[in-house]
C-alpha cells in the first residue's frame, strides 16, 4: 500500500513556541486516518501546512509521492479546514456551481452527485444563510468532494452534525475509503474516530504521543484484574511482583500486564486459585485522556 501523506520532522514555530514539533506522520492509500488531540495540540496547523496554507519552519511534506511545494501534489486533494465559507445570499447549489466554474473537469452533474452524497439534494436550492451549522459542514464536504479527490483532508468535519448526519458521514467516509480515497480527519469526537478510523495519531503540544489502530491503543494498555480469597491476597501479590501490581478498593489485584494467561499460569503453578482473572481494556477516551495528561471524568470501561 503506497503512502499518500508523508511528513518528516515537520515543525512550525511561532516566536519561540513550536506549535508543531518534529512531527513524523505516514498515511497510507485507502486509510481513514484520525488526528485526535486536545485544543491547541497543533492539528489545524499541521493540516494547513499539508495543503500549503502555512509554510513549515522545518521538515518535509510529500503528498501523493510529490514533495511540497510541487503543486501537482495538491492536484487531487479535497480540503475542508475550519468553518467552510460560502456566500450566504446564494443557494447551496449555486455556491457549488460557482466553485465548479473555477475548477477543471467539473460539470453540473458533478454538483448534483456531491449534493446527493452529502444528503443536501432537497435543500440545495435554499440560501446558505438559512442553513444550520451541520448543513454548512455538509456543503463544505460537498465542495471538498467535487474534484473527486484521492486524498480528503477534513478538519473537525462533524462539528454541528446531528446523530443521523454523523451516521451518514461515517458511512460516506467508509465508502470513500473502499473506493480508494484516503481520508485524513481531525476530530474531538473519540467515539467517532474509534468507529470510523483505521488508524489514529494523537498529537499533544505539537508532538506525536501515540499512533496505531484504535483497538491496539486500548489493548496495549489492558490490565489484568484478579480476584482471590482474602487469605491468598498477600501471596498472590508476591507471586505477581514481576509486574507492577496494586490492590484496588474492592480487594482485587490490578496487574499491569495485558495477557491474563500469564497471571493464571503464575498463580496456578503456585497453587493459588483465582475466582476471576479478567483483562480490562480502557476505552479510547481513557487512553486519550491518559496520553494527553487530562484526568478522566468517566470510568466507563470496555471489558475485553
Ligand atoms: P483545536 O482543537 O482547538 O482546533 P488544534 O490542535 O487545531 O486546536 P492549532 O489550531 O493548530 O491547534 O493551534 C496550535 C497552537 O498554535 C495554539 O496554541 C495556537 O494558539 C497557536 N497558533 C496557531 N496559529 C497561530 C498563529 N498564526 N500565530 C501564533 N500562534 C498560533
Description:
The structure is a single chain. With 304 residues, the chain is α/β, with parallel strands linked by helices. It folds into 2 domains: 3-213, 3-Layer(aba) Sandwich (Rossmann fold), CATH 3.40.50; 218-303, Alpha-Beta Plaits (2-Layer Sandwich). The protein is 32% helix and 27% strand. It has a 6-stranded mixed sheet, sandwiched between helices. Strands 12-13-11-14-15 form a 5-stranded antiparallel sheet. It has a 4-stranded antiparallel sheet with strand order 2-1-4-5, with helices on one face. The chain starts with a strand and ends with a strand. Residues 295-304 have low confidence and may be disordered. Adenosine-5'-triphosphate binds at residues 14, 19, 37, 39-45.
Low-confidence stretches: 295-304
The CATH architecture designation of the largest domain is: 3-Layer(aba) Sandwich
Structural class: alpha/beta
Radius of gyration: 24 Å
CATH class of the largest domain: Alpha Beta
| CATH homology superfamily name of the largest domain | P-loop containing nucleotide triphosphate hydrolases
Q: Characterize the biggest β-sheet.
A: 6 strands, mixed
Concise overview:
Helix content is 32%, strand content 27%. It has helices spanning 43-50, 92-102, 108-117, 133-145, 163-178, 190-196, 214-219, 233-239, 260-269, 284-291; strands spanning 3-14, 17-28, 32-35, 58-63, 66-67, 77-80, 151-155, 182-186, 199-204, 207-212, 223-227, 245-247, 253-255, 276-281, 302-303. Strands 6-7-8-3-9-10 form a six-stranded mixed sheet, sandwiched between helices. It has a five-stranded antiparallel sheet with strand order 12-13-11-14-15.
